[in-house]
Amino acid sequence: MTIRVAVAGATGKMGKLALRLIEEAPDLELHAALGRETPLSAIDGADVAFDVTHPAASADIVRHSLSIGVPIVVGTSGWSAPRISEIEAFRRELGEGAPAVLFVPNFSIGSVLGTAFAALAAKFFDSIEIVEAHHAGKVDSPSGTAVRTAELMTAARGERGPVAAPHADQRARGQLVGGIPIHSLRLSGVVAEQRVVLGGDGETLTIAHSTVSPSSYEAGILLALRRAPEAEGVTVGLDALLDLGISSDR
């Protein structure tokens, strides 16, 4: 079976990467390549949509795709838990049989593993901070990967409760997500990096991941596109497709 894919954000770096992967894959076919001026109706008739656009545009693309019955893989950053909850509510309004949404903050297998390790370690440390760095052109901060990591670590702590939060006057300690400070760097020469630093009595643990080439995203993109047509509900994170035990399948 050939999967017809509509790519929104086709002129960007991730969009161009997706176009190449679709062209090379024997089981994928390009249905439409959407740029900034392309009407959303170009998605109509696709088997799956792939959204790698801009945080301000992504919600309309997701809602349109769901409303016409096309499952969608969302690689656009900036999708926090509250925004995802709004999409869940929208799907419920559409009723039974609404297509699936796969929110993937990061398509890198190594990054997903780093987040999984951080969630595992979060249960044992009360001091936790995240430092993430991306290329200078990335418009959102903190990154979707960092937000996802903080949310999973907070959930993993369970009854242990929140981490030691910064003092109210320590504004340089970063944006709090689930009580965990996230520091964002936007620098030329960087692709993507994340360090989770956990502090305990007499020790620190650092879980770090660096993306040195966009090729690290290829396996994750292909996996998500191939799984989306048969998926159900709202799924957050590539880990849900890798069976790592930390999925947020909704």
From TrEMBL:
<dbReference type="GO" id="GO:0009089">
    <property type="term" value="P:lysine biosynthetic process via diaminopimelate"/>
</dbReference>
<dbReference type="GO" id="GO:0016726">
    <property type="term" value="F:oxidoreductase activity, acting on CH or CH2 groups, NAD or NADP as acceptor"/>
</dbReference>
<feature type="binding site">
    <location>
        <begin position="9"/>
        <end position="14"/>
    </location>
    <ligand>
        <name>NAD(+)</name>
    </ligand>
</feature>
<feature type="domain" description="Dihydrodipicolinate reductase C-terminal">
    <location>
        <begin position="112"/>
        <end position="240"/>
    </location>
</feature>
<comment type="subunit">
    <text>Homotetramer.</text>
</comment>
<dbReference type="GO" id="GO:0051287">
    <property type="term" value="F:NAD binding"/>
</dbReference>
<keyword id="KW-0560">Oxidoreductase</keyword>
<keyword id="KW-0457">Lysine biosynthesis</keyword>
<protein>
    <recommendedName>
        <fullName>4-hydroxy-tetrahydrodipicolinate reductase</fullName>
        <ecNumber>1.17.1.8</ecNumber>
    </recommendedName>
</protein>
<dbReference type="InterPro" id="IPR036291">
    <property type="entry name" value="NAD(P)-bd_dom_sf"/>
</dbReference>
<dbReference type="InterPro" id="IPR023940">
    <property type="entry name" value="DHDPR_bac"/>
</dbReference>
<dbReference type="InterPro" id="IPR000846">
    <property type="entry name" value="DapB_N"/>
</dbReference>
<dbReference type="GO" id="GO:0008839">
    <property type="term" value="F:4-hydroxy-tetrahydrodipicolinate reductase"/>
</dbReference>
<dbReference type="GO" id="GO:0005829">
    <property type="term" value="C:cytosol"/>
</dbReference>
<dbReference type="InterPro" id="IPR022663">
    <property type="entry name" value="DapB_C"/>
</dbReference>
<keyword id="KW-0520">NAD</keyword>
<comment type="similarity">
    <text>Belongs to the DapB family.</text>
</comment>
<feature type="binding site">
    <location>
        <begin position="144"/>
        <end position="145"/>
    </location>
    <ligand>
        <name>(S)-2,3,4,5-tetrahydrodipicolinate</name>
    </ligand>
</feature>
<feature type="binding site">
    <location>
        <begin position="104"/>
        <end position="107"/>
    </location>
    <ligand>
        <name>NAD(+)</name>
    </ligand>
</feature>
<keyword id="KW-0028">Amino-acid biosynthesis</keyword>
<dbReference type="InterPro" id="IPR022664">
    <property type="entry name" value="DapB_N_CS"/>
</dbReference>
<comment type="function">
    <text>Catalyzes the conversion of 4-hydroxy-tetrahydrodipicolinate (HTPA) to tetrahydrodipicolinate.</text>
</comment>
<dbReference type="Pfam" id="PF01113">
    <property type="entry name" value="DapB_N"/>
</dbReference>
<feature type="binding site">
    <location>
        <begin position="75"/>
        <end position="77"/>
    </location>
    <ligand>
        <name>NAD(+)</name>
    </ligand>
</feature>
<keyword id="KW-0220">Diaminopimelate biosynthesis</keyword>
<keyword id="KW-0963">Cytoplasm</keyword>
<feature type="active site" description="Proton donor">
    <location>
        <position position="138"/>
    </location>
</feature>
<comment type="pathway">
    <text>Amino-acid biosynthesis; L-lysine biosynthesis via DAP pathway; (S)-tetrahydrodipicolinate from L-aspartate: step 4/4.</text>
</comment>
<dbReference type="Pfam" id="PF05173">
    <property type="entry name" value="DapB_C"/>
</dbReference>
<keyword id="KW-0521">NADP</keyword>
<dbReference type="GO" id="GO:0050661">
    <property type="term" value="F:NADP binding"/>
</dbReference>
<feature type="binding site">
    <location>
        <position position="135"/>
    </location>
    <ligand>
        <name>(S)-2,3,4,5-tetrahydrodipicolinate</name>
    </ligand>
</feature>
<dbReference type="GO" id="GO:0019877">
    <property type="term" value="P:diaminopimelate biosynthetic process"/>
</dbReference>
<feature type="active site" description="Proton donor/acceptor">
    <location>
        <position position="134"/>
    </location>
</feature>
<feature type="domain" description="Dihydrodipicolinate reductase N-terminal">
    <location>
        <begin position="3"/>
        <end position="106"/>
    </location>
</feature>
